[in-house]
Amino acid sequence: MGNNPQMPYNELPLLPPKVELDNKTILKKAISANGRKTCI
Fold it and tell me: Phi/psi of residue 26, each to 5°?
């Protein structure tokens, strides 16, 4: 089935996802890495 701009696509997934995408450990490491300023 091709793309028809005149017909809406109503089968999008519900938000927010039921799966936790980020956990506290990953977020803490990302925040601490963002705070470091490195020059090459």
Answer: -65, -45
The per-residue DSSP string of the chain comes to ----TTS----PPPSS-SS----HHHHHHHHHHHH-----
Task: Give CA–CA dist 21/17, Å, rounded.
Answer: 8
Query: pLDDT digit of tens for each residue in the chain (40 aa)?
Result: 577 888 887 777 777 777 777 788 888 888 888 776 655 5
**How far apart, in whole angstroms, are the C-alpha atoms of residue 11 and residue 17?**
14
